[in-house]
Input
Amino acid sequence: MAKMKQYTLSEMEDRYIGRKGTPERDEYEYELRMELLSRMIRTARKERGLTQQSLGELVGVNKSQISKLENHTNSATIGTVMRVFRAMNADVQFNVRLENQPVQLI
Output
């Protein structure tokens, strides 16, 4: 029996989505990050024992807007996302890297 070739996730992404830096790969990675952000919002809300309605009231938005954030069906501004996490007393940290060098605030 012939041995099956194995591929890493990175190799599969390069092959089927596109190499890093291509528009297709950039869009894929953006969508993946947005999906993770949506899951973080939902997980944090549930850990705080909040309903979508009660979180919406804390943030000052409708329940439907919280639902859209959690289901990744809208493109929220960073301001809205920050308000959502602040309402849950969540510590949010950002990492920014330029050409593999971390950006440090002065």
